[in-house]
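Could you join me in thinking about how sequence relates to backbone shape in a protein? We need material for that, and I hope you will provide a protein of your own picking. Label the sequence line and the structure token line clearly, so we can match residues to local backbone shapes. Would you write everything just below, so we can both look at the same thing?
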Amino acid sequence: MIEEPLGLADDEAERRWAAFIAAAVDQLCWESRPRIAPPVWVIDETYVLAEPWFLLPGWRLRMHQLVDTPAAFKRRNIYGGDRIISRV
């Protein structure tokens, strides 16, 4: 199910969600036991956002999101805190 890359996104909202899915696949592969190697497509620069995307609104939550978001999401400029994967 994760072997095939996502299709090309047409607009900003689709690009964000494509990056989110790539990050989720990457993170879930990292957390799996035994560890599953992530598919090659998740490292494509297409899935890195040019601007940061903070999933939780408000300036007060920014620091939490910047610090606690898993690395797979941070690499793609997506911030949502330490429970981001439980929301997938």
Observations:
- The beta strands are 53-54, 78-79.
- The CA atoms of residues 16 and 52 lie 10 Å apart.
- Residues 12-87 form one domain.
- The mean pLDDT is 91.
